[in-house]
Amino acid sequence: MAHTSSSRMTDSSPKFDPIELARRESDDASLSYCRLFPHEVEARLYAAHLLETRGDPEAALEETAQACLLDGAGADALQQYGRRLLKSGDFTRAEVLFAASLERDPDAFDALVGLSSLLYHRGEYGPARAALERGVGGHPLLGGAASDPDTPGILRVLGYENSAFHIIRYPDGSYASAVHGGHFSPDHLIDLGAWRCSILNILGGNTLGLTLPADTGIVLNTISDPDRERGALLDLALLLDRNPNLPVINDPRQVLQTTRDRNAARLGAIPGLQIAKTERLRWRDGDPAEAVREVFGLGFVLPIILRKTGSQTGDDTVLARSEADMERYFEAGDGAEHYAIQFHDMQRADGLFHKARVFFIDGQMYPVANLHHDGWSVHSGDRYSVMANREWTQQAERAFIADPETALGAPACMVLKRIAEIVDLDYFGIDFTLCEDGSVFVFEANASMRHNFDHAAAFPYTRPNLDRISEAFRVMVSDRTAHR
To answer: Within this chain, do residues 359 and 404 fall inside the same structural domain, yes or no?
Structure first.
């Protein structure tokens, strides 16, 4: 890509000065200062950043385009332009810009991430993985900055053993590259932009012998799925062994214990708790009838839930009501490891199914949702098919959010708190329902549960509680860094 400018600065022309920029007391003043230097790449790029943060993505895109036309525009300007093109939905031109950036700098991280997500989006999984490994493998540590240099440093941990970069679409219609699978998102839990946040990317032993930044205040381990990211969790555990004084949110060795089969074994002994029999199957191909025989040999009876390990969304989950259903599932051959889970029919007398969710943050329980649906697999998005039209279900959720001890009863809350003691994570969730005998039936307990405001507009009574959850997480991080 050619770079030209309509005019040139002379040696006597004033130069863009980041120190002078920092003296500006407002974004408007900073933008005005950047406008004084239309022929400097750095000034244009910072102006684009300011425009983007104030909510004007079109102007930010144009500003970045102009920066790329200037002499001196390098790989960073090109990858920023590519990122903003991707954000706008112009995937074709974004890929061209990422490729141009990589011609100038083969290790340009954002370009590799963007390219990987675009390749994955169109089904080119091998090249997408190769781009990911080039980017992540060569950049185990990515630094961050904050407006206040005294802000404590957060080291956010990501693992890539079996995770990938996907393109996600936000409610406002914009797009972004993001890690998909194996992690919980901190986006609505804490404003990482207010902290000095660095990223630790773990892949294939790239952290062996790594020295962490001296100003790291806390390690935020967002890896949540031990089936998908077991290797990354083990590498993180070894890294933390070499840094024993660093506080960590979600100890990786505790996360490793939260597989579905491990939870079924260790939580099932809690008085007042029920959990489905769960076994791990290692099967990829061959005669599906052999896999079916193994499941029955392990003591399961129809109907049986079958799902891939490392999946949290339910998209790969099948409720097999016959041997033929089981054979069809295994014939797909998608994944080497699977879970067999004994199905329990939890349909209530009113014909609906129920699922409640609580989070535990720093040892305290926070109600999240109380859902009703007419299908056995209940998710938050199912609110609109039943709950939107049945006021009593919303009243039940209001009561649960306002006072879970009363809504659930003291014995059930004691069971949930006992689960928290065993799981021993700083942040995780429990999905469950109450049985007719008052016992707690646990569907799952792990850190892979997403905190979000997706349905707060349609169900506004949930927003204050969701805000409390975000505040609890922020306070936990603040307290841990303050007491270090």
So the answer is: yes
Closest Cα to residue 330, out of 277, 376, 282? 282
User: 64 with 183, same domain?
Assistant: no
Helices (H), 277-390: 288-297, 323-331
pLDDT at 97: 98
Query: Sheet harboring 304-308: ordered strands across?
Result: 278-282, 337-342, 304-308, 318-320
At residue 88, the pLDDT reads 97
Per-residue pLDDT, 483? 67
User: 421, 397 in Cβ contact below 8 A?
Assistant: no
Domain count, the chain: 4
Separation of first and last alpha carbons in the chain: 49
pLDDT of residue 4: 43
Q: What DSSP string describes 12-23?
A: TS----HHHHHT
Nearest to 109 by CA among 88, 68, 80: 80
Strands 248-249 and 216-221: parallel
CA angle 309, 313, 314 (to 5 degrees): 75
Do 151 and 242 reside in the same domain of the chain?
A: yes
Query: Do 415 and 272 touch, CB atoms closer than 8 A?
Result: yes
pLDDT at 7: 43
With a CB cutoff of 8 Å and minimum separation 6, the contacts of 140 are 200, 201, 202, 203, 206, 207, 210
CA–CA separation, 383 and 393 (whole Å): 10
pLDDT tens across 236-280, in order?
A: 999 999 999 999 999 999 999 999 999 999 999 999 999 999 999
pLDDT for res 25: 86
Q: Same structural domain for residues 159 and 226? A: yes
- Vertex 166, ends 201 and 381: CA angle to 5°? 115
Q: Are residues 478 and 358 in the same domain?
A: yes
In a domain, 220, yes or no: yes
The verdict on 378 and 334 lying in the same domain is: no
Q: Which residue stretches of the chain have pLDDT < 50? A: 1-9, 146-147
Domain that holds residue 31: 18-134
Confidence at residue 104, expressed as pLDDT on a 0 to 100 scale: 97
Q: How is 153-171 classified by DSSP, letter by letter?
A: EEEEEEE-SS-EEEEEE-T
Q: Which pLDDT score is estimated for 161? A: 95
Domain final residue, candidates 102, 134, 166: 134
What are the phi and psi torsion angles at 365 (to 5°)? Answer: -90, 135
The answer to whether residue 196 sits within a structural domain is yes
Give the whole-angstrom CA distance, residue 326 versus residue 479: 49
- Domain of residue 374, CATH code: 3.30.470
CATH number of residue 309's parent domain: 3.30.1490.20
pLDDT attached to residue 268: 96
**C-alpha 458 chain-centroid distance:** 23
